[in-house]
Task: inverse folding
């Protein structure tokens, strides 16, 4: 069995998601982790020990971790506004890497990383995990199989409890800076990529409204977003996002895809997909999922390890996909400020 020595760059919240996922993959060996802050080494080590696992070496110098011959692939889980120089060094090393999304604060940054990856011949995969989540993969299978005819309308709702976000990013975290868009780009890019992938189409325009809400009990920033996206294939996709809700609101996600034959594909949370068909009534698929599997992190990381690193395949998700998703998320902020539609090239 091939062995992949993984190095973790960045040891925050998303690094923990990746560690949980990778720790369950037999081909992976947790060789190293990097953060320039030694206190993060301590916290991450405590976290890994609770899982009955660990990291062999900790580095405060990224260059030294990248020079380690036992590190054969890298997970880059750095906030978008800080990621460019770090991801740039990793790509320059030539080692395969998965970069958490969005892999840059602007489309221009993503273009720069993509250009560098092409020059170095490096295999770089943005972490758009929704493409790998069982509920969304089943939904795409049903759509592509013609079960509801061509999609005509999609309604997507993702309500994340405010206390959950506060645990992920505590008071004073970079993500609560409203002037930089707050959590909206980070929390919406995954759905934007999902929409392009599910529909096999590109967006024409987007109109959005945003309601901000100070949450002094958490020291965070709540948000409620509504947006309408028109796609080239004629589909209208409506999103509702919120990070202001109470935990009691039920499943954090629901997606309803209406087809031209009157049927529908419904993802009711990450663990259930329902097909409504005029011919056969209702069919249902349920998924028994561990935490790293619900939103696609484990299958995504398994694909990265087995296909991109060991199999040396080009990633199915590319940096240009991440760029398009980020442009759609940034359009939410622009449209909400101007009160006008944003049109895409």
Result:
């Amino acid at each position: 069995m091939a062995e992949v020595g993984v190095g973790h760059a960045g040891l925050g919240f998303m690094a923990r998601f990746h560690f949980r996922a990778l720790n369950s993959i037999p081909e992976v060996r947790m060789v190293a982790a990097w953060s320039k802050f030694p206190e993060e080494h301590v916290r991450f080590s405590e976290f890994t020990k609770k899982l009955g696992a660990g990291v062999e070496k900790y580095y405060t110098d990224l260059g030294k971790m990248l020079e380690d011959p036992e590190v054969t692939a890298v997970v880059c889980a750095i906030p978008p506004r800080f990621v460019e120089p770090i991801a740039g060094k990793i790509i320059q090393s030539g080692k395969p890497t998965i970069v958490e999304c969005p892999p840059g604060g602007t489309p221009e940054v993503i273009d720069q990383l993509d250009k560098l990856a092409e020059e170095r011949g490096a295999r770089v995969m943005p972490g758009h995990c929704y493409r790998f989540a069982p509920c969304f993969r089943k939904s795409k299978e049903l759509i592509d199989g013609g079960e509801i005819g061509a999609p005509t309308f999609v309604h997507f709702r993702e309500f994340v409890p405010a206390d959950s976000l506060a645990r992920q990013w505590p008071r004073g975290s970079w993500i609560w800076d409203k002037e930089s868009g707050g959590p909206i780009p980070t929390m919406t890019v995954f759905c934007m990529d999902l929409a392009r992938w599910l529909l096999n189409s590109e967006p024409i325009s987007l109109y959005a409204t945003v309601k901000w809400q100070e949450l002094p009990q958490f020291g965070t920033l709540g948000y409620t977003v509504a947006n309408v996206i028109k796609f080239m294939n004629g589909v209208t996709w409506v999103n509702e996002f919120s990070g202001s809700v109470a935990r009691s609101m039920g499943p954090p996600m629901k997606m309803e895809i209406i087809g031209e034959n009157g049927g529908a594909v419904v993802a009711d949370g990450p663990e259930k997909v329902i097909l409504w068909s005029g011919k056969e009534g209702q069919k249902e698929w349920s998924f028994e999922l561990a935490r790293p599997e619900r939103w696609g992190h484990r299958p995504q990381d398994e694909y990265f390890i087995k296909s991109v690193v060991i199999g040396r395949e080009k990633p199915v998700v590319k940096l240009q996909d991440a760029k398009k998703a980020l442009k759609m998320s940034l359009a939410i902020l622009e449209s909400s400020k101007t009160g006008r539609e944003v049109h895409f090239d």
